[in-house]
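Late entry, written up from scratch paper. The run itself happened at the end of the previous shift, but nothing got recorded in the book at the time, so transcribing now.
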Amino acid sequence: MEEVSMVLQPISLNLKELSLLVSFDVTQSSRDGVVSVFPNELLQLQTTRSWEFMGFGDNIKHVPEIESDVIIGVIDGGIWPESRSFADNGFEPPPKRWKGTCAGGHNFTCNKKVIGARYYIEDSARDIRGHGSHTSSTAAGNRLERQSFHGLAPGTMRGGVPSARIASYKVCGPDGCTVEAILAALDDAIADGVDVITISIVGDNYAFDKDTLAIGSFHAMSKGILTVASAGNSGPSPGKACNIAPWILTVAASSTDRKLVTKVVTGDGKTIVGISINVLEGEEKYPFAYGKTASSSCTQEQARNCDKGCLDLVKGKITVCDKQTDVRELKAKGARGVIYKVSINDHPRLNPIPVVTLDDTNYQSLISYITSNPNPVGCILKSETVKDTDAPIVASFSSRGPNTIVSDILKPDITAPGVSIFAAYSPVAATAIGESVDSYFLSGTSMSCPHVAGIAAYVKTLRPHWSPSAIKSALMTTAWGMNGSRNIGEEFAYGSGHVNPIKAADPGLVYETSKEDYLNMLCSLKYTSQALGTISGGNFTCSKESKLTVRDLNYPSMAAKVSSSSDITFSRTVTNVGKAGSTYKAQLSSDPRLSIRVDPNTLSFNSLGEKKSFIVTISRNGLSSISGIAAGSLVWSDGSYSVRSPVVIYS
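Output as recorded:
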């Protein structure tokens, strides 16, 4: 029988009450007084160069007196408060509006930087796995100069808002993160008074009244708090993006212009370039073991694939594999290194022995050398840092859309650096190289998410009265455009584009969305009053006369799944936050299969805070025959500001 998280209380209760656990059959959802039943599943967790890559380096003037008033709530695996990234030198006492506490457990002390800590799993808020410290420091870690990892990636390590305060909520243990813990943490973070929540945790997608993060983040949004969440690491297959409620800012992961490469030098002096994070010096050449030279018991194909249990002749050799393999097994058998082929070679890995991943072209070059020489040898050199002129590219692991719950809401919303991010780590956490470290490389949407949370917090310091939807809109409409042909999944990979922290603070226009707007959208999806109560924590009655659809939600991007050849319309309203007396003109670009028009195509604003509405129409020509994605964009420009929204039509 499945254990479920369910409520036997009235709708108006808070999130802690929503998280009451009862072991019960899910059929009990029909009982009187049961608001919602959903599985108490285990959800999963998911900087030196990244800020400079985004133009958010030392050229940006930070004002500690203002930034120190912003509090970022990190719901993750805890924090290592003694890390230099979280030292409180120069910090004043916490903001007076802070209502939280330091309940970190045994031998845990907060300070004026880490101003709050709570734990809902294990016996302390202390991070013993590294993930929570890494995400916390990426969002708001102190500025630390001359940092590197065994000489790799040297530079200044810091978070997006170094002077911001951190409140840590530990909800994750060795097996994942429980629904009840996440709900309780969200409830506490709201009550404590955080300004932004970053949560690098994913689970399966459910209808929003059954989705823990959707419910908790709706409550946060209702209190003026933006929730930034990771899209997940299940790419590049379509439809895997998580945390896809429209009131969540959903973040994909992409590369920066810093690339870690590792060279293989063969016995004939040729150099083959792959990627990995190899900190071990190694110019001594070793024999290559490939196929039957690596195994005495398995078939040629099994040996070339390095199937588990096959490789018994690898001691003292560099093992070569046609597929990804278990490096730990090969290390235990005495291998001096491992080289294997990957279909998409875009994120380096750190391993206990020298390892290199090669794309197909470079791999075939290596195999050609091995098979044409009776005694092939080679070495794996220490990794190097090089400039990647192709960046940013969305990582292959980053989860893609389309949105599997609300097909006409584009997800992910935005992408940010998430490949080889160097940030704080727990000194007691496991590492691939078996040594204690206080900073470490990690990749994932878990890493891109706190980048965006840090930028959202930065915008909050400059625009303290902006709503969550205004901040979200600012980040999305000022994002760098991405090249769809270079990214698997196109807009379903990166949403509105790559976050641009400089532009986000001054977007010109914003798309604001209220709590009632979201509820009306849910009404159009036929959510019941009971379901709406579960999500919102209050009573809301859908209008029987309303003809609104999801496409009428005032969202910064526009998406529609084609089911007929009828015209598609989106209604939107923008608020002027740029300059009084400004006039914006519509600029349209689109796939040749689309015909887009805007009415009106000019918006004139007399004052700040003024609102103007418009309608975007996609003509019916060819819509029914569209295969895959047909995309365009709408840009409102007054000559100074460019406010961009992607327009995505798909089948």
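Residues 445-462 form the longest helix (18 residues).
(Scratch paper discarded after transcription.)
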